[in-house]
Design brief:
Structural class of chain B: mainly beta
Oligomer: heterodimer
Shape of chain B: flat
CATH architecture of chain B: 2-Layer Sandwich
CATH topology of chain B: 60s Ribosomal Protein L30, Chain: A
Strand order of the largest sheet of chain B: 1-8-2-5-6-7-3-4
Order of helices and strands of chain A: EEEEHEEEEEEEEEEE
Number of helices of chain A: 1
Chain lengths: 183, 132
């Protein structure tokens, strides 16, 4: 189908090129979780540091928050219109910031890529040294801690993973909750 | 002008966190209604949000102004959810979010029921609150 907007009352809906599949909300239950409080020091690469910290731990996936801290360098993406029918909206070119960057809010999901490796998905909001606001999809492998340590909380769980899989409806590779033993 | 504020007792509840519900919302699903549906499907009375990120077609947030609740419309598509916090309880859910528009500008407020629809995906993880 051709991607298009429709109206549901006074809110817009959007239909992607792929056929919508049921169920519309996927949910799996996990009996318990393990909590981690992580303080990343100045100059740490956040993606590499989190991968190292998670290595060897028995868990399937995790969710968490960036509680506070600063960065000296980062790269993030915003959604743009592409003109493509298959994927009419996608992330645009990276926005790169340097200098004093203060985190306001952030969330992250640790899923699994098709090879089973932890896959970090992060959205965050921050303020640059001129006081300008920014927010979007943050690339953790290009995030360097600066000015003050970065504090992250993670909730690790097993038996269910956020597994990266192709999504026929949106044509993105997305994280889906699936039953899975810890690795 | 002075205001008289009646003494009101705080309500304190002790308890612990229980089961997690690890979820994904597909396009066009409302965040508040989906959170309540997930709790109902798993027999959870009250839950807190442990993780939430994704994107909205458009964002609709609320705040309390001098003359009642005011709405803030964040035009999309592709409004990025940067974080969600709050409590899920059937019919009484209150979720607060920080979101960014396609220019990276930040907005915050309470999520309006039925008016924050998933655009590509929303990853949402809830955890049951078990009072003693």
């Amino acid at each position: 189908m051709t991607p298009h907007f429709t109206q549901r009352g006074d809110v817009r809906t959007f239909f992607h090129e792929g056929e919508p599949q049921l169920p519309r909300v996927l949910g799996c239950e996990v009996p318990h979780c393990e909590e981690l409080r992580i303080v990343l020091p100045l100059a740490a690469n956040v993606g590499e540091s989190l991968q190292r910290i998670l290595q060897g731990r028995r868990f399937s996936s995790a969710v968490g928050r960036i509680l506070c801290g600063g960065a000296s360098h980062l790269s993030y993406h915003r959604m743009v219109e592409t003109g493509s029918v298959a994927r009419p909206f996608d992330y645009g070119a990276p926005v790169v910031l340097d200098g004093y960057i203060t985190f306001i809010s952030g969330a992250l999901t640790v899923g699994r890529d098709p090879q089973g490796k932890p896959l970090l998905h992060c959205h965050a909001g921050f303020i640059d040294r001129e006081g300008n606001q920014h927010g979007g999809h943050l690339v953790l492998d290009k995030l360097v801690v600066g000015s003050e340590p970065l504090i992250v909380r993670l909730c690790l769980f097993d038996q269910v993973a956020y597994q990266q899989k192709p999504d026929d409806e949106t044509h993105f590779n997305l994280l889906h909750p699936v039953l899975q033993e810890a690795s | 002008m002075s205001a008289v504020i009646e003494d009101q007792e705080s309500s304190i509840q002790s308890g612990k966190l229980g089961r997690l519900v690890v979820a994904r919302l597909k396009p066009n699903e409302d965040l508040v209604q989906s959170a309540e549906a997930l709790c109902a499907a798993h027999g959870i009375h009250t839950a807190v949000v442990r993780g939430g990120l994704g994107s909205l077609i458009d964002g609709n947030l609320l705040y309390l102004g001098r003359s009642g609740m005011k709405s803030v419309h964040v035009a999309g598509p592709g409004v990025e959810i940067l974080s969600i916090s709050g409590e899920v309880r059937a019919g009484e859910t209150q979720l607060q979010a920080v979101v960014a528009d396609a220019d990276g500008k930040l907005y915050a407020g309470r999520m309006e029921r039925g008016r924050n629809l998933s655009f590509i995906t929303i990853e949402l993880t809830l955890q049951e609150w078990l009072p003693d």
